[in-house]
Write a structure and sequence with these properties.
405 residues, alpha/beta, Aspartate Aminotransferase, domain 1, Aspartate Aminotransferase, domain 2, 14 helices, globular
């Protein structure tokens, strides 16, 4: 069945036509891109047995080892038969928590939740409970809950009056009143030395005023060099939020950090926080990433940065790449980006405006560069016209581009 049929079916049964805003068909060139895939394997997505696309989306950053990774899946299948969720505490949650503490060595306690949104929600609740304060300053995208989405004018259905302020409205020379936490994506695209110095100043500011500093590394965790921004630059937050790539596609959210905060009085509880196959997937992903040279994160980012350098030498006046390596953005006018992505999909390469390179797709970057040269030359000569409705930006991209204005 062609993907148009699946799209028509989804509109009659899936609320709003898609479960994830950033995967909605309107974020692609409508009428040209496939809307539904049947499976993924390695670096590829399939709409049927023979129609496959090189995937440069990586499940929005969740798939870091490649789809259907056999080393991981064999381990997970061995524990799945014992049940996903037991009535009591499990040994697996202890094993995985110990593995996380060893990986992110400054952390002292771990709380598992279901996804990145829940991790950020939980961290903010912990900070408020610990400090007895209410206000939270934010920068970046932190999920779909009310406080995170109310910062955008298009987030209909969120009540007003949330106790959050944009971080750039905060004077780091001031003495803040009632500020419980600062939650920030430490690196989105910019990891310049200026950005790192800013993070250091933020750490000092939070120490001085006893504010809980939360690093939302749901995207950078397991993908950034040294496996996190905090670890790479030795800037340690009080709480770190992780997710996505920690379990290579199995849904997971993690909060880790200081004992006094995480063992304080608050209520964060869920039946599936200790889901055994997910926690096993997290344990194995951590092990493979740390001990198997095939999944060396430093090497992944070096390849990605080399690709960025070569791409940006083609036609940077039309489209260029911006970012730190395994996660980058195609940057250009909305029209040029739509045309560029249309050529990619015609050459069986699936990408969004954000590019995620993983350990499976890194082997195909030379092919991606060849298609890029062709696409940019065709755009420059005016030989390409949009064949469908132009893409719309997902909410996460809108919030990140807003930059707290």
């Amino acid at each position: 069945m062609i993907t148009k049929d699946w799209h028509d079916r989804s509109k009659h049964c899936i609320a709003q036509g898609a479960l994830t805003n950033s995967k909605h068909p309107y974020t692609d060139v409508v009428g040209v891109f496939p809307t539904h895939f049947s499976r993924g394997y390695g670096a590829f997505l399939y709409t049927n047995e023979y129609d496959k696309y090189l995937d440069l989306v990586s499940g929005l950053g969740a798939i870091n080892l490649g789809y259907g990774n056999e080393e991981l899946e064999n381990e997970v299948s061995n524990v799945s038969r014992h049940g996903g969720c037991l009535s009591g505490n499990t040994q697996q949650e202890v094993i995985t928590a110990e593995k996380l503490k060893a990986t992110f060595h400054w952390t002292e306690r771990v709380k598992f939740v279901n996804d990145g949104t829940e991790a950020c929600m939980s961290a903010i609740r912990m900070a408020r409970a610990f400090t007895g304060r209410d206000i939270v300053a934010w920068e970046g995208y932190h999920g779909w809950y009310d406080e995170a989405t109310a910062i955008n004018d298009n987030a209909f259905g969120t009540p007003c009056g949330h106790k959050t302020i944009p971080l750039n409205k905060l004077d780091l020379e001031s003495n803040p009143e009632n500020l419980a936490a600062i939650i920030i994506e430490p690196v989105m695209l910019d990891d310049s030395l200026e950005r790192i110095e800013y993070l250091k100043k933020l750490r000092e500011y939070c120490d001085k005023h006893k504010i809980v500093l939360i690093f939302d590394e749901v995207v950078t965790g397991m993908r950034y060099p040294s496996l996190s921004v905090a670890k790479h630059w030795s800037i340690y937050p009080d709480l770190i939020c992780l997710g996505k790539a920690c379990a290579n596609g199995y849904k997971i959210g993690i909060v880790a950090g200081r004992t006094d905060i995480m063992d304080s009085e608050y209520f964060v509880s869920g039946t599936y926080f200790g889901h055994i196959p997910t926690l096993k997937a997290t344990e194995v992903t951590l092990h493979l990433t740390k001990h198997n040279s095939k999944y060396d994160v430093k090497e992944l980012n070096e390849r990605a940065l080399l690709f960025k350098e070569r791409f940006n030498s083609i036609h940077p006046d039309i489209i260029k790449l911006d970012g730190w390596g395994a996660r980058m953005n195609w940057v250009g006018t909305d029209n040029n980006l739509a045309l560029f992505r249309q050529v990619f999909i015609e050459h069986k390469i699936f990408t969004k405006n954000t590019l995620f390179i993983n350990h499976a797709s890194k082997e195909f970057l030379d092919n991606v560069l060849d298609v890029s040269i062709y696409a940019l030359n065709q755009i420059k000569m005016g030989n390409i016209f949009l064949k469908g409705k132009p893409p719309r930006k997902p909410l996460a991209q809108i919030i990140r581009e807003k930059k707290n204005d």
